[in-house]
């Protein structure tokens, strides 16, 4: 790993190395899930900014939307960590299919509660 | 049967004995003892002039209750003096003690008035005598009118002040919350939708393969998941809670089967390849 440096002569910084390694070493499926995670994060941040900057008037709507992004992020992150082949030793008793089934069930329950609260 | 009893009672009362008063008399005297007014009382006709009592006067009423035919003294079961105010409708009942021989004496001393006197109004009190007995037919006679001095106002209860209507509560409410102006709303709506564009762009770049997505073992599962999402959206728009739970349970049972099938096939494929 290249040491962290800010000298202009070094072409690569640690972040660039990290990004390069990520791009090369992560499978497409995991990248697919990561894109979804990134999307969820952006969505949650934008909603939160709106609530702070403009108004929290339909407060239940804000809570429903924000918690939907946060909850979905948690579920997807756990799916990603359980499905990753490199983590197989951590999750011996949970097969990737079981992880996906849990993810699906959790998502549906989350969506139900969010729709309930959305009003 | 009922009317027969009525007839019997009527017959009995027609035969019942009558009571009368012997030498009924009332007198008004002042504290020193001198008599201001003294008259006999008639049962048939009310006394024409009302009795005027001023403070400290004493009204005495004496009579003897006798059987009309035999003239013997009778002690009736109930002997009352009724003070009735026509204007206010109040009445006071004062029992009169009668000796076994039938003699009765009633004294009204305004220095210590009986509690049963109603408060004084402009109209005079009608005083009547009511006698009840089980062996004789009842007797009720108006004796005279009574004019009393003004009564004191009723004493105020110490807790009186707390038994009145409290002032009406005027609630103040927070002003209604308003939506922000449409421009800002539209701008932020666009901003919130923007991450979807980011997601679609990223996904198009990555585009992982799903080779067996539409195979018959997996497709039903995907479709039932999609159906769940559709059901929830329908619930948001239209359905009630009970309905969505019912449909969700049915769909859930279906999804369990398709899911088992789909995930088992994927797992087998993964393990076989490994």
Automatic annotation (TrEMBL), chain A:
InterPro entries: DAD/Ost2. The chain crosses the membrane at residues 35-55, 99-118. The keyword Transmembrane applies. It is a multi-pass membrane protein. Pathway: Protein modification; protein glycosylation. GO terms for molecular function: transferase activity. GO terms for biological process: protein N-linked glycosylation. Its main location: endoplasmic reticulum. The keyword Plastid does not apply. Keywords: Endoplasmic reticulum, Membrane, Transferase, Transmembrane, Transmembrane helix. It holds the Pfam family DAD. It is found in: Endoplasmic reticulum membrane. Subunit of the oligosaccharyl transferase (OST) complex that catalyzes the initial transfer of a defined glycan (Glc(3)Man(9)GlcNAc(2) in eukaryotes) from the lipid carrier dolichol-pyrophosphate to an asparagine residue within an Asn-X-Ser/Thr consensus motif in nascent polypeptide chains, the first step in protein N-glycosylation. N-glycosylation occurs cotranslationally and the complex associates with the Sec61 complex at the channel-forming translocon complex that mediates protein translocation across the endoplasmic reticulum (ER). All subunits are required for a maximal enzyme activity. Component of the oligosaccharyltransferase (OST) complex. Belongs to the DAD/OST2 family. This is Dolichyl-diphosphooligosaccharide--protein glycosyltransferase subunit OST2. It comes from Crucibulum laeve. The lineage of its organism: Eukaryota, Fungi, Dikarya, Basidiomycota, Agaricomycotina.
Automatic annotation (TrEMBL), chain B:
Pathway: Protein modification; protein glycosylation. The keyword Endoplasmic reticulum applies. The chain crosses the membrane at residues 183-206, 218-237, 243-264. Pfam families: Ribophorin_II_3rd (PF23860), Ribophorin_II_C (PF25147). Residues 1-16 form the signal peptide. It comes from the Eukaryota. GO terms for biological process: protein N-linked glycosylation. It is found in: Endoplasmic reticulum membrane. Its main location: endoplasmic reticulum. GO terms for molecular function: transferase activity. The keyword Endoplasmic reticulum applies. It is a multi-pass membrane protein. InterPro entries: Ribophorin_II_3rd (IPR055374), Ribophorin_II_C (IPR056790), Swp1 (IPR008814). GO terms for cellular component: oligosaccharyltransferase complex. Belongs to the SWP1 family. Subunit of the oligosaccharyl transferase (OST) complex that catalyzes the initial transfer of a defined glycan (Glc(3)Man(9)GlcNAc(2) in eukaryotes) from the lipid carrier dolichol-pyrophosphate to an asparagine residue within an Asn-X-Ser/Thr consensus motif in nascent polypeptide chains, the first step in protein N-glycosylation. N-glycosylation occurs cotranslationally and the complex associates with the Sec61 complex at the channel-forming translocon complex that mediates protein translocation across the endoplasmic reticulum (ER). All subunits are required for a maximal enzyme activity. This is Ribophorin II.
């Amino acid at each position: 790993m290249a040491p962290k440096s800010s000298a202009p002569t070094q072409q690569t910084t640690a972040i660039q190395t990290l990004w390069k390694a990520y791009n090369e070493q992560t499978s497409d499926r995991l990248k697919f899930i990561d894109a979804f995670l990134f999307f969820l994060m952006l969505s949650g941040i934008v909603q939160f900014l709106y609530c702070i900057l403009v108004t929290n008037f339909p407060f239940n709507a804000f809570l429903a939307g924000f918690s939907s992004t946060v909850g979905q992020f948690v579920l997807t992150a756990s799916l990603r960590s359980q499905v990753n082949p490199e983590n197989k030793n951590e999750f011996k008793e949970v097969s990737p299919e079981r992880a996906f089934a849990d993810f699906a069930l959790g998502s549906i329950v989350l969506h139900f509660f969010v729709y309930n609260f959305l009003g | 049967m009922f009317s027969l009893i009525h007839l019997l009672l009527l017959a009995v009362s027609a035969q019942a004995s009558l009571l009368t008063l012997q030498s009924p008399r009332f007198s008004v005297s002042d504290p020193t003892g001198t008599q201001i007014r003294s008259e006999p009382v008639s049962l048939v006709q009310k006394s024409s002039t009302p009795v005027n009592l001023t403070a400290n006067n004493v009204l005495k009423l004496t009579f003897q209750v006798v059987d009309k035919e035999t003239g013997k003294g009778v002690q009736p079961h109930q002997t009352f003096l009724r003070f009735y105010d026509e204007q206010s409708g109040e009445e006071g009942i004062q029992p009169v003690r009668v000796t076994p021989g039938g003699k009765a004496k009633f004294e009204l001393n305004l220095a210590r008035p009986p509690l049963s006197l109603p408060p004084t109004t402009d109209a005079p009190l009608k005083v009547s005598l009511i006698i009840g007995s089980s062996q004789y037919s009842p007797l009720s006679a108006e004796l005279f009118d009574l004019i009393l001095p003004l009564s004191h106002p009723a004493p105020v209860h110490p807790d009186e002040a707390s038994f009145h209507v409290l002032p009406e509560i005027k609630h103040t409410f927070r002003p209604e919350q308003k939506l922000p102006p449409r421009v800002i709303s539209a701008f932020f709506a666009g901003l919130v939708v923007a991450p979807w564009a980011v997601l679609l762009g990223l996904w198009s770049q990555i585009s992982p393969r799903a080779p067996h997505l539409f195979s018959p073992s997996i497709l039903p599962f995907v479709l039932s998941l999609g159906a769940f999402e559709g059901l929830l959206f329908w619930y948001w728009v239209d359905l009630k809670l009970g309905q969505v739970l019912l449909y969700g349970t049915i769909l859930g049972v279906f999804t369990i089967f398709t899911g088992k099938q789909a995930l088992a096939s994927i797992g087998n494929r993964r393990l076989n390849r490994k």
